[in-house]
Amino acid sequence: MPGTTLKLGSPEVAAVIDARYAAEPDGWRKRRLLAVKLAAKGQSTSAEVAELCGIARSHLFVWLRRVREEGLEALLARDKPGPREGSRRGVPPEVMEALTARLAAQQFASAEQARRWLKEEHGIERPYGTVWSWLKKAKGVLRVPRPTHSRKNPDAACAFKKQHGRKA
What is the pTM of this model? Predict the structure, then answer.
């Protein structure tokens, strides 16, 4: 019913939330604690709490149910952890090791060659930007220099270097 204030139903949690909220650095945990803290006070509606916290009302109700059923620690735990540092989602570590070894042996002149190798040898199809970021993280560099424009004026480039090179 609209306009009804929220009641958390756990007065023992309300006392703990203030201390946890003050100690928590900015981030997703602080947002969750703020939402539960406002609901525990019982002075705001669900729409007001959701608006203040910048979340959907449905999220608020999920968080409140989790606090009621499992406690405050369950609210502050991540539901789905992301991939481990250095791992690539859906790519076995052996493939990444082979990619790094081929990169160290300078067998790829471009990121597109590495992308094609992943697709042909291992059946892994990823966008160019993804493969490029993997290569950069593995300390890869382009072996082929970037092309220059066909209408580049070498005299103008030389004059520009002479004029602006001393200012640095």
Answer: 0.48
